[in-house]
Design a protein that fits this description.
With about 550 residues, the protein is an alpha+beta fold. It has 14 helices and 17 strands. The strands form four sheets. Strands 1, 2, 3, 4, 5 and 6 form a six-stranded antiparallel beta sheet that branches. Strands 12-14-15-17-16 form a five-stranded mixed beta sheet, with helices on one face. A four-stranded antiparallel beta sheet has the order 8-7-10-9, covered by helices on one side. The two termini are about 55 Å apart.
Length: about 550
């Protein structure tokens, strides 16, 4: 009986050791991956900021450039040379106006006055262009910096399919776009990325693009050097529709050992650069599966040796194993909760920062003074911050619609007549509504009904089709104010009520500038506004 009991205890000890070793191996792999991931995330954040500075550089330079008439010689002047000096990896800056066939003589006159020999419009391979035979505008390079690149004057960027696609996308989106890696006409041995920044005149007419050529090797080498790279990590950078990496950086140990690369632990990170994805693949020379196995094996061997060597102390062994098992389970649970918390926090911070960045960027309206822009930004960010305070108080689950329409968030809420059922908005929708109500109230206070004592605002909302697919309908109507006229230019507020708010809610909006008062209507599926899981729990 004793031998059987000892054999049973020994078998139980062996099995328990194997179980603990398995948990330890899994925990080791999880903890080590989290630790390395934190280093990767820190490095990637610094790299992303460095690369996005190039997009901001293109935006800033293009805003300061005022295109002269098409026939003017050397339209960039010294502006282009100064722009090239702003970044060490910026190889070239060029001005590419949109030219119709009737404007070709002006362009040729500009090229001739700029000193271009035999000024003609030609393709990248030197073939002359017949403007009348094209079914699209021409995008010639009429000026470029530095000066040694002027051999490309007169080359039509539209004759390159990838360049043409990027230019047209910049025109359509009104944002900076980029090409895939390509060879510059003036530097066929250098891989480069071209950024195109659209330029519009005060009448909102598209004039052309400024082109910014960045040398890929210098751009990404400088970007990756902005922060400490994980030890011996290999980094490869990919872009859309290109199978091979456009840039690679690896330590000598990995570059000379293909087996080490295959055993590495990989992390994928993505960012948007010029409206196209860049994918960063970090390969850290750590085989966590093997390390976890060895760690677990060591734990198993130690546990078995301890079990077989101290089998007489059954009670101690059992109690110790149970305590160790509970500790392992507790640590694993804590790690899982920490991963979920970090993921949720990163997601919320990215969303909030994206909204705040959009508010600040779009608040820079031409014609307004810096103090006006500052006050506008502060008001919008304050409305967003108050909405976030309400969300924080509710643990980011949901926010009451009526709580957003209060004097704590919405200016002049006391003069707004409200009518409608209260609903619980999801966090993303609450931020959008906070900015929307702030813009409507601020506009009414500046130009509409709330600008005079006798003015009134009526805010109504309802839910239609209470059956299968309910629809939320909101109506803002002003009365008793001054005569309303449609604005001559559209700023952030006009963009928010017409496009941003409806798009965030998968709905549609209508703006009416009636003489009797401003009116705004918003319609969206209710499922896009509320958290259906939270709503179901509250119903139960």
């Amino acid at each position: 009986m004793t031998r059987a009991l000892l054999a049973l205890v020994a078998a139980a000890g062996v099995l328990l050791s194997l179980y603990v070793a398995q948990n330890e191996a899994r925990q080791y792999r999880t903890v080590e991956r989290l630790r390395i991931g934190e280093i990767v995330d820190t490095h990637f954040a610094a790299v992303s900021e460095h690369i996005l500075e190039r997009t901001n550089l293109a935006k800033t330079v293009s805003r300061f450039f005022v295109p002269p008439p098409l026939s003017a010689p050397a339209p960039l002047g010294t502006f282009g040379q100064r722009a090239v000096g702003l970044a060490p990896d910026l190889a070239t800056v060029g001005w590419l106006p949109e030219v119709r066939p009737a404007q070709v003589p002006e362009i040729l006159a500009s090229l001739a006055a700029s000193g271009a020999p035999n000024p003609t419009l030609r393709t990248g391979n030197g073939q002359p262009i017949d403007p009348q035979a094209l079914d699209r505008p021409i995008y010639p390079i009429v000026d470029i910096a530095p000066a040694h690149n002027r051999i490309v004057l007169g080359v039509d960027a539209g004759s390159f399919p990838e360049r043409l696609v990027a230019i047209l996308e910049a025109k359509r989106s009104r944002e900076v776009t980029r090409t895939r890696p390509l060879k510059l006409v003036q530097s066929p041995d250098t891989n480069s990325l071209l950024l195109y920044a659209p330029i519009f005149d005060p009448a909102d007419r598209f004039l052309g693009v400024m082109g910014f050529g960045f040398r890929i090797d210098q751009l990404f080498y400088n970007a990756l050097a902005t922060s400490k790279v994980p030890a011996d990590a290999a980094i490869r950078i990919y872009t859309e529709d290109v199978e091979e990496p456009i840039f690679s950086q690896a330590s000598a140990s990995i570059a000379n050992d293909s087996a080490a690369g295959e055993r590495s632990t990989r992390f994928d990170r993505r960012m948007d650069f010029g409206q196209n994805d860049l994918r960063f693949v970090y390969a850290v020379p750590r085989d966590l599966q093997r390390e976890g196995f060895l760690h677990g094996l060591w734990i198993a061997c130690a546990g078995i040796a301890m079990t077989l060597g101290t089998v007489l102390f059954i009670g101690f062994i059992v109690n110790r194993s149970a305590a160790l098992s509970d500790e392992v389970a507790s640590r694993k649970s804590a790690e899982d909760r920490l991963k979920v918390l970090i993921h949720e926090l990163n997601h919320r911070v990215r969303n909030v920062m994206a909204v705040a960045q959009a508010v600040v960027r779009l608040s820079f309206t031409p014609g307004h003074s810096l103090s006006e822009i500052q006050r506008t930004c502060e008001g919008r960010l304050q409305a967003l911050a108050k909405a976030m305070s309400i969300l924080t108080a509710s643990d980011w689950r949901s926010v009451s619609l009526r709580s957003l329409i209060s004097e704590d968030v919405l200016p002049f809420a006391g003069r707004i007549e409200m009518e409608g059922p209260d609903i619980a908005l999801r966090a993303r929708t609450a931020q959008t509504f906070a900015l929307l109500f702030y813009e409507l109230a601020t506009n009414a206070a500046k130009h509409g009904a709330l600008s005079v004592p006798e003015g009134r605002v009526r805010l109504q909302w309802r839910i239609d089709n209470l059956g299968s697919d309910p629809v939320f309908h909101l109506h803002w109507k002003e009365s008793g104010g001054p005569v309303v006229e449609a604005p001559t230019r559209r700023g952030f507020g006009e963009l928010l009520v017409r496009r941003i708010a409806p798009r965030d809610m998968a709905g549609k909006s209508e703006v009416r500038y009636e003489p009797s008062g401003f009116e705004y209507e918003l319609e969206a599926p209710l499922r896009e506004l509320i958290d259906t899981k939270t709503a179901a729990q509250e119903t139960e």
